[in-house]
């Protein structure tokens, strides 16, 4: 039987946070999804909704600084099989409509394509991530409707990260404008 680990959420550091002119602090949401090493099967998903508070920079703990209006789905950890693939999407939530749509897209691995934004911009089927993804890389995601980052109208896409063979990591999410700059700390357990 293949070994698996749990990625435990330590916290989210918000270096810069922006929700729009006169709109207050951002409502950070991180969507996590783990897949089998072949990328053809969803293992688990997790939604992290933090209650941000300025001034920034600030580090928010999980689950202590979670938004209490959003149910705590499955505790603090994401199960990942050995050699598995993890995708993480950071969003600034306003209506929740785009967050829900992106979360649904993450549950359909056969339809996902991953664009590497670090170095050569190459596209991979989720089932074909190469060894270049052994450490976290900035990515964009695409499905049949197009680039997920460009499809958001009601919530703001901050950025996404993908990697295989996960372990402890700090995932950096920086928006194209630079107004949102967040880092999620994950610890491997098991």
Can you walk through the features of this model?
With 190 residues, the protein is mainly beta. The chain is 5% helix and 45% strand. It is built from one helix and 13 strands. Strands 2, 3, 6, 7, 8, 9, 10 and 11 form an eight-stranded antiparallel β-sheet that branches. Strands 1, 4, 5, 12 and 13 form a five-stranded antiparallel β-sheet that branches. A hairpin with a 6-residue loop joins strand 7 and strand 8 (123-125). The radius of gyration is 15 Å and the shape is globular. It starts with a strand and ends with a strand. The mean pLDDT is 86.
Strand coverage percent? over 45%
Total strand segments = 13
Rg estimate, integer Å:
15 Å
The quaternary state of the protein chains shown equals: single chain
- The shape, in one word, is globular
Helix share of residues?
under 10%
Could you list some keywords that capture this structure?
mainly beta, five-stranded antiparallel sheet, 1 helix
Brief sketch in words of this structure:
The chain has 190 residues and is mainly β.
Helix/strand layout:
Layout: E1 4-16, E2 28-35, E3 42-49, E4 58-61, E5 77-81, E6 85-92, H1 97-106, E7 113-116, E8 123-125, E9 137-143, E10 146-147, E11 156-164, E12 169-174, E13 181-189
Antiparallel strand pairs: 1-4, 1-5, 1-13, 2-3, 2-6, 6-11, 7-8, 7-9, 9-10, 9-11, 12-13
